[in-house]
């Protein structure tokens, strides 16, 4: 049976196909439109709609804000791809690879500006609150991205620092999207905070699970090649926790493997993770953040049946059905 998330995703995708930019100059707006043709899971804009629907019928303003959120998200992706020098996104050439870096930067910029145009078109009496919330979310996403880049240059970081980074880079955008929908619906400040905290903890659980799956997941169901993070020496929950809590011998082996490029690197690091027990710790952390997420959802003052769609979404995200 189709889920509520899937229903809203289909409705939003149809709406989002509308023309967002003028025709001229085609080199600029063609690049921006090219990025939007990629599609995507539309998780953030649909969360905005679900955040509204938790408290009552979806209002017209929530659809406009959902469009703004998706444009804002794609703006960040264009710039992320430039910073990462990524040649591909979802199997297609990235905007800077397809056009050029300067055009890609400008395409991202006009996407950001158009997002604010949609925000300003709302009739909501809360529009200033919503814009401040989008600004806060965007600033924190930038902070998270910078910390992620900074951590690439640091040999060892604390687990608390890593979790703070992924909270900013990933979780706050999910949380902010939910809260924007709740604001439009007229939710109380307490309920707005609870839906925000639900989204934030869901995002943390999702990222911890993502880190675990990269090493221990089944590629046929996870959809990614096993050990990609290990090959790239990427900071993950597993690596950071292992460097923080493993035995001196395990740490030394791990440090040596970080500069090793042999074909058995993935298997050897996986063995250390298992021996140090960080695979189990990661699963415990995921369950901890999910427990916090569900607790905040339960605290929201709406009928229990209103929460069903968000509970199903949370389960689907962690089971990788979305």
Could you name the key traits of this structure?
mainly alpha; globular; single chain; two-stranded antiparallel sheet; 322 residues; 16 helices
Written account of the structure:
The structure is a single chain. The chain is an all-alpha fold and 322 residues long. The chain is 73% helix and 1% strand. It contains 16 helices and 2 strands. Strands 1-2 form a two-stranded antiparallel sheet. Strand 1 and strand 2 form a beta hairpin. The mean pLDDT is 94.
Number of helices: 16
- Average pLDDT level: 94
Strand order, sheet with most strands: 1-2
What is the molecular shape?
globular
What does the largest sheet look like?
2 strands, antiparallel
Strand portion, in percent? under 5%
Percent range for helical residues?
over 70%
Q: Structural class of the secondary elements?
A: mainly alpha
Distance between the termini: 14 Å
Tally of strands = 2
N-to-C SSE string, H for helix and E for strand: HHHHEEHHHHHHHHHHHH
Give the radius of gyration.
Answer: 20 Å
State the low-pLDDT regions, or none. Answer: none
């Amino acid at each position: 049976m189709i889920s509520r998330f899937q229903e809203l995703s289909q409705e939003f995708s149809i709406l989002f196909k509308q023309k967002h930019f003028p025709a001229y100059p085609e080199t600029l707006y063609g690049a921006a439109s090219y990025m939007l043709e990629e599609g995507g899971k539309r998780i953030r804009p649909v969360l905005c709609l679900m955040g509204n629907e938790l408290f009552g019928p979806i209002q017209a303003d929530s659809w406009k804000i959902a469009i703004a959120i998706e444009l804002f998200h794609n703006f960040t992706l264009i710039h992320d791809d430039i910073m990462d020098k990524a040649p591909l996104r979802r199997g297609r050439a990235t905007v800077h690879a397809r056009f050029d870096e300067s055009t890609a930067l400008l395409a991202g910029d006009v996407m950001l500006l158009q997002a604010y145009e949609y925000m300003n078109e709302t009739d909501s009496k809360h529009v200033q609150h919503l814009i401040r919330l989008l600004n806060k979310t965007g600033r924190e996403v930038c902070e998270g991205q910078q910390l992620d880049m900074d951590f690439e240059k640091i040999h060892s970081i604390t687990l608390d620092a890593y979790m703070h980074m992924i909270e900013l880079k990933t979780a706050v955008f999910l949380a902010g999207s939910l809260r924007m929908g709740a604001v439009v619906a007229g939710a109380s400040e307490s309920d707005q905070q609870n839906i925000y905290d639900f989204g934030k903890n869901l995002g943390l659980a999702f990222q911890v699970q993502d880190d675990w799956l990269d090493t221990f997941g089944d590629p046929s169901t996870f959809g990614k090649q096993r050990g990609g993070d290990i090959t790239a020496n990427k900071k993950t929950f597993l690596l950071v926790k292992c460097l923080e809590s493993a035995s001196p011998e395990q740490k030394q082996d791990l440090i040596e493997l970080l500069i090793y490029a042999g074909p058995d690197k993935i298997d050897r690091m996986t063995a250390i993770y298992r021996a140090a027990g960080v695979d189990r710790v990661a699963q415990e952390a995921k369950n901890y953040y999910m427990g916090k997420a569900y607790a905040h959802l339960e605290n929201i003052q709406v009928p229990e049946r209103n929460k069903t769609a968000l509970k199903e979404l949370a389960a689907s995200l962690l089971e990788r059905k979305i």
